[in-house]
Amino acid sequence: MRIIKYIFIGILFVLFSATNVSSQTQNDLPKNLILAFKQGNCENLSNYFSDRIQLSIQDKEGSYSKSQAKQILDKFFRDYPPTDFKKKHAGGKTGARYATGELITKKGSFRLSFLSKKQNGKFIIHQLHIEKD
User: Fold this and answer.
1) Long-range contacts for 33-37 (Cβ within 8 Å, ≥24 apart)?
2) What does the alpha-carbon distance between residue 102 and residue 23 come to, in Å, rounded to a whole number?
């Protein structure tokens, strides 16, 4: 578990170090993605999922299909109804982006981070981590 966290942090560091110095819009996240996190809308959120996604939610992690990840996240949002999502940092380079933020729920705050890669002109989430703040 800790090894995967360190690997993910390493990936984030490498991506952060390789960030292009370009327009701010390159690092902006799609508004619908942010809104999906704020509302806990798994249907819209799953539109950004890869066919296989590495999902880590509160010490439970694994590689899941898009539909399995959607169900797991739906259960999380039912248990912890979101009230807001605040992007803390986003970056990356051409073809890959990452973001970190705070997911505020009725039962507390969580650190949320994800890694996305460009596929067919659209950024697709490959890794999503949610852990208690």
Assistant:
1) 34/85, 34/87, 37/82, 37/85, 37/101, 37/103, 37/112
2) 24
Asked if the model's pLDDT at residue 114 lies above 50, the reply is: yes
Total-model pTM: 0.77
Q: Please, which residues have CB within 8 angstroms of residue 2's CB and are 6 or more apart in sequence?
A: none
Q: For all residues of the chain together, what is the average pLDDT? A: 85
Residue 126 pLDDT: 95
Task: Specify the DSSP element, H or E, that contains 78.
Answer: helix 66-79
